[in-house]
Amino acid sequence: MAEPILKWAGGKRQLLDELYARFPTDHDRYHEPFIGGGALFFDLEPPDATINDANPRLVNFYEQVRDDPEALIDRLASFDDPEADPDPSLPYDETTARDRSVESYYYQQRARFNRRPYESEFDPLTEAALLLYLNRTCYNGLYRENADGGFNVPVGRYANPDWVQRDRIRRASDVLATTTIRNDDFAYVLDVAEPGDLVYFDPPYEPMSATASFNEYSADGFDREDQRRLLDVAGALDEAGVWVVVSNSGVMYEPYAEAGLHVDVEGATRAINSDPDNRDAVDEIVATNVPPDERLDGGQRGLPEF
């Protein structure tokens, strides 16, 4: 079974059984417009699927995993321990582009990652390798961008971090081999989904309160107008005979119920939190247009912890 390679905010490892329980007994092509870490996608291993994300770096990463897994593994294997000294043969071994001191190998790679979109030459393989390296060595595995789109998470403290992820990359590459990978707006699915297909939406969550935020993983964010558009897209798919499953925060219960979907509240555990003791359960909803008597019987097991 394939497993997610990246740690990603809002991962669905612990919600897999609840999601499968809302699947139809049978469906055709599978589409996931907000792929993120891909917990459900890699567990399902669907043939001829489409996946999408608004984050171009994440999309590039999956393209490299699909198209050139061994080269990606080799590039990752060449990286050093995050607390090692900076590599003098690479850029930013002393200061960042903003003239800030570089304290270790990790911060040198972070500086390289953040400058790459502005440099004249772009190496998608290096970009993908840096993304996974930083994801697996940064503090708590948190992907976060500032307002300028820069990755700004500090280094983590791990005894033996595994940033190469050989087995996961190879298994994921096999699953992605027949997958169409897109960097579009989520509404692309209106053009590709056919009657009998299944679409799973896992958008950045509507905040549970004025101070809580589930959408800080991207500089662009995902606002309430996007949430309303998502409701409209789900409704259009329903009318077209496409199966729809959506997960979101509990505050979206009423909008989905009013749209005519079957909605249930599920408990979920925060996958990423700076305080491990505060990864408490929060309300999530799972909404679907699949009638209860047409759903898949039983769920599949959840993925192991990272």
TrEMBL record:
Q: Name one GO molecular function term.
A: site-specific DNA-methyltransferase (adenine-specific) activity
Superkingdom assignment? Archaea
Q: Which InterPro entries match?
A: Ade_MeTrfase_dom_2, DNA_methylase_N6_adenine_CS, M_m6A_EcoRV, MeTrfase_D12, SAM-dependent_MTases_sf
Q: Which SUPFAM superfamilies match?
A: S-adenosyl-L-methionine-dependent methyltransferases
Q: Which reaction does it catalyse?
A: a 2'-deoxyadenosine in DNA + S-adenosyl-L-methionine = an N(6)-methyl-2'-deoxyadenosine in DNA + S-adenosyl-L-homocysteine + H(+)
Q: Name one Pfam family in it.
A: MethyltransfD12
Q: Which BP terms does GO give this entry?
A: DNA restriction-modification system; methylation; mismatch repair
Keywords, sorted A to Z: Methyltransferase, S-adenosyl-L-methionine, Transferase
What PROSITE patterns does this protein map onto? Answer: N6_MTASE (PS00092)
Coiled coil spans: none
EC number of this enzyme? 2.1.1.72
Family named by the database record: Belongs to the N(4)/N(6)-methyltransferase family.
Q: What is this protein called?
A: site-specific DNA-methyltransferase (adenine-specific)
What organism does the record attribute this protein to? Halorubrum aidingense JCM 13560
